[in-house]
Known about the structure:
Elements: E1 3-11, E2 14-20, E3 25-29, H1 36-48, H2 56-59, E4 67-73, E5 78-83, E6 88-92, E7 95-97, E8 108-111, H3 123-137, H4 139-159, H5 166-206, E9 212-217, H6 224-233, H7 235-241, E10 252-257, E11 260-261, H8 262-265, H9 268-290, E12 295-299, H10 307-316, E13 322-326
Parallel strand pairs: 3-13, 8-12, 12-13
Antiparallel strand pairs: 1-2, 1-4, 4-5, 5-6, 6-7, 9-10, 10-11
Amino acid sequence: MIIKSIKLTNFRNHHSYQLNCDEKTSLILGSNGWGKTSILEAIYILTRGKSFRATDPEIINRDSDYYRIELEYTSGETTTATYDGKTKTFLILDKKQKRLPKKHKYPVVLFLPSDLNLISHSPGRRRDYFDRIFTEFDEKYSTSLTKYNKALKQRNELLKKDYLTKDTLFSWNIMLAKYGSDLHHYRLIFIEEINQKLTLTYRSIAENNDKITIDYKSEARESEQKYLTKLETNFERDHYLGHTTFGIHRDDYIFNFNNKPADGSASRGETRSIILALKFIEADLIYQKLHQKPIILLDDVFSELDETRRRCLIKNFKDNQVIITSVEGRNDKNDRN
């Protein structure tokens, strides 16, 4: 699928804006704070079903009580999302949906400036990053993650109550054990697939013989039954602290550079090459698993990369539709394609 245009109404600081996209590369120029990232966010919502950075109430323009975004593909298919302050609906083929249906989602590789700091980010940020990647190419992972997070939220809310018994938590423990075990299984498989490609892809960028790997760290390595037992054993501690202290929501991903933690041993340039390699692998895995070439959204990353890495980025995504934001050049009201 190729995007033809995207139109925003009352979306963040855009009262009305339309971007007409090129089939290969579209460039959005503007000063900081102008709303370039918001355009990529709108595209992400209409291709993936939700924002990558905010909830719907935060997205509405401060002077409005609704937002609307419309995306048209070159095939003629259109997708519209409207949020009225209470409910978001998607309009597809004249039929309203509360969620973007699976068959109308399209894979996206999103590249944000903050991704270049992934190695030194918190474990939570790394989990969110890999969850976003894995949900792109595996619907089962996405479903298990959604159900796990809902069960975790309910369990944590109950743990904050003064009077609580183990029996009250049993059904939530069952769900956490089931979906937590599933997610652990998927994460092991996906990280192994990434590791099989990571060093060679990195070397193609950096042109050296360094070795790059990712260690998946998880305390939830047990079977589903042992996972459940651990949750029940931790009842008193969890109730005292008011949150669930065991589970895959505490996992981490450690990047290694020549068998040492990359955070502290890899230079700034080497770190950027690692993240570039990860993005190329993400796009490759999406195509391998879904047989679709993902849309590439690059948010002001060129300013963070040297000329060699810029050329590598362009070369590796030459067969994809790419939409880039940049602060270079002057800002006006015209579309830059």
